[in-house]
Design a protein that fits this description.
DNA Primase, Chain A; disordered C terminus; Dna Topoisomerase Vi A Subunit, Chain: A, domain 2; alpha+beta; 622 residues; five-stranded antiparallel β-sheet; DNA primase DNAg catalytic core, N-terminal domain; elongated
């Protein structure tokens, strides 16, 4: 079996060595490497090391050494073809079969690499030539010294459209390969190909192995786009590569932060400032492939690059687009943080104007993705009406629904629900000053003591009639069994409660209902009670949750079976409805006897039909 070398490189790049070996051994991080007892000989202390940055394992005890393919062959007792097949399956790649045309393709790609490398060297020379004086002056104005220019291999493409072609032809490169590499462009009229880049500072773009595959060109002056990139070639697809990627791979392996910025000069400025993990997309918004590349840079579990945007309106729109693209891709330990720069600044200008500490402060204030999502959806919204509140919840629910990973989606739904509860509860409470004043009136405060958010001046008296006991019983049961909040949410919302303190508690429980979670809510009762107590309802909770309540209504107790609690609430609501309808029927019959109107007759008939409800259990719950 002969496998194309390019495929083996792809396999090694896609599968970090520590990830593959970590499936078979328990690895422990040791500085830049991982360590473990060697699987190839018996030893007491670990002498087996794994280095993702260098791409090999080594045992100082027995001398075992190799790459990811060699490890799988040796550890799993596989042949080379079997090891490649195994790793390809893990990476989700089909194994190509080498044919004569595959070998030709490999040689052709090698020729493209060589042509681009030759052009890079020539562009570097032109920057120092008289024709490159304006380009060199531009770089100097941007604060770059000779070391930085050499390190990033910056160059200059002369304005003469025919300057590059004869140089590379003399070096043995044909016209066709120069066009295919993106160095030359054929005119529409069929004439001789000419230089694609002209009168531009050139920023060489390397692949993940550090080989130059393309260029970004910045116009010095005159007409034309400010920046252009090499077109799509066999070596370069701008949506599948990042500027600065090869440096960022090494930086991430050393646990340095990975920061995504907008432009070439931003990356250069950050690398010079000590942020070697800086990368930038190539003239487009981040693609799904680039996001996956970013996550693969991290050797550990926590894969969280920082996306850095301008703080203006355009920057926030770009952040919103990035959130849209990233949400469906989130998974355990795979996310991003978002940082916003001060208005009018980019990383390059910020560092040159205010120093590295100013940029560090920006990174320190980077926000989690859920924070940014919340800010995007709540910005410029007003929440005075139920419809507006429902609109926010619907918008956030739609966003969270985009997350494919169900576990991550569940945690996002809980976090978003908690924030909605806090926002609406705070607004609802602030919109009810009379209720707050009524409930807190006459209660002296200790100097310096925190003021309760809501608490009645005295515990309401325990009602004796069944129709008045029902609201209390409903609240007690749902507080002890929040698993039933979804099921009885409408009943809770529509039940009339005449006692102001209990009505406030009911509203708070309705608001909390969306944040408790979905599905199995066992174990949430304590959290609900703690939250309600924090909102100022401790005295009401003490009364409602008194053990004497459970003596006569066992289904409402914290330890009651969920099915019993459900049946108790269902039967209690049916009894409550019978009492209410019976009273309305008596009143409607009285009016019918007095006036004999058709409307009263219709009402009596309707109420009698509503009395046909399921019979309660033998033990009346209220």
């Amino acid at each position: 079996m002969t496998v194309p070398p390019a495929f083996l490189e792809e396999l090694r790049a896609r599968l970090p060595l520590s990830e593959v070996i970590g499936r078979r051994l328990r690895l422990v991080r040791s500085g830049r490497e991982f360590a473990a007892p060697c699987p190839f000989h018996n030893e007491k202390s670990p002498s087996f090391t794994v280095n993702d940055q260098k791409g090999f394992f080594h045992c100082f005890g027995c001398g075992a050494h190799g790459d990811v393919i060699g490890f799988v062959m040796r550890h799993d007792h596989l042949s080379f073809p079997e090891a490649v097949e195994s790793l390809a399956g893990l990476a989700g790649l089909p194994v190509p079969r080498t044919a004569p045309e595959d070998r030709q393709r490999h040689e052709h790609r090698k020729g493209l690499h060589e042509a681009i490398e030759a052009a890079t060297c020539w562009f570097e020379q032109q920057l120092r030539a008289p024709a490159g004086a304006a380009a060199l002056a531009y770089l100097r104005r941007r604060g770059l010294d000779d070391e930085a220019i050499a390190s990033f291999r910056l160059g200059y493409a002369p304005s003469d459209r025919n300057a590059l072609r004869p140089v590379l032809e003399r070096a043995g490169f044909g016209i066709e390969i120069l066009v295919e590499a993106g160095l030359l462009k054929r005119p529409d009229d069929g004439g001789a190909p000419f230089s694609f880049f002209r009168h531009r500072v050139l920023f060489p773009v390397a692949d993940r192995r550090g080989q130059i595959v393309a260029f970004g060109g910045r116009l010095i002056d005159g007409e034309g786009p400010k920046y252009i990139n090499t077109g799509e070639t066999p070596l370069f697809h701008k949506g599948q590569l990042l500027y600065g990627l090869s440096r960022a791979r090494a930086a991430a392996a050393e646990q340095q932060p990975v920061v995504v910025v907008e432009g070439y000069m931003d990356v250069i400025a950050l690398v010079r400032a000590g942020y070697a993990g800086a990368v930038a997309p190539l003239g487009t918004a981040l693609t799904e492939t680039q996001i996956e590349i970013l996550w693969r840079l991290f050797p550990g579990r926590d894969k969280t690059p920082v996306l850095c945007f301008d703080g203006d309106t355009a920057g926030r729109r770009a952040a919103a687009r990035a959130v849209d693209r990233i949400l469906p891709m989130l998974a355990a330990d795979r996310s991003v943080r978002v940082a916003f720069l001060p208005g009018g600044e980019d990383p390059d200008s910020l560092i040159r104007g205010r120093g590295v500490a100013a940029f560090k402060s920006v990174l320190d204030q980077a926000r989690s993705l859920v924070d940014v999502l919340w800010e995007i959806e709540t910005a410029e919204r007003r929440f005075e009406t139920p419809e507006a509140k429902a609109g926010l919840k619907a918008a956030l629910d739609a966003r969270v629904d985009q997350i494919a990973d169900r576990t991550v989606q569940g945690f996002y739904r809980g976090e978003v629900g908690r924030r909605i509860n806090e926002l609406f509860w705070t607004r609802w409470r602030s919109d009810r000053p009379m209720a707050g004043a009524r409930l807190g009136a006459g209660r002296p405060q200790r100097p310096g003591a925190p003021r309760p958010m809501m608490a009645p001046p005295e515990p309401p008296r325990r009602p004796k009639s069944a129709s008045h006991r029902w609201p209390r019983l409903l609240l007690t049961t749902l507080i002890n069994h929040p698993q039933l909040l979804d099921e009885f949410h409408e009943i809770l919302a529509l039940t009339e409660i005449g006692e102001p303190g209990l009505d406030d508690l009911r509203h708070a429980l309705i608001v909390l209902a969306d944040g408790v979670g979905q599905g199995d809510r066992s174990g949430e009762a304590t959290a609900v009670r703690v939250r309600l107590a924090a909102l100022g309802f401790q005295e009401l909770l003490d009364e409602l949750l008194d053990p004497s309540t459970y003596e006569s209504h066992r289904f409402s107790a914290p330890g009651a079976d969920l099915a019993m609690a459900r049946r108790g609430l269902t039967d209690g609501h049916a009894t409550f409805c019978r009492i209410r309808i019976g009273r309305e029927l008596v009143e409607a019959g009285r009016r019918l006897g007095q006036d004999g109107g058709k409307r009263d007759l219709s009402r009596v008939i309707t109420l009698r039909s509503e009395l046909v409800l399921p019979e309660p259990e033998p033990e009346d719950p209220v």
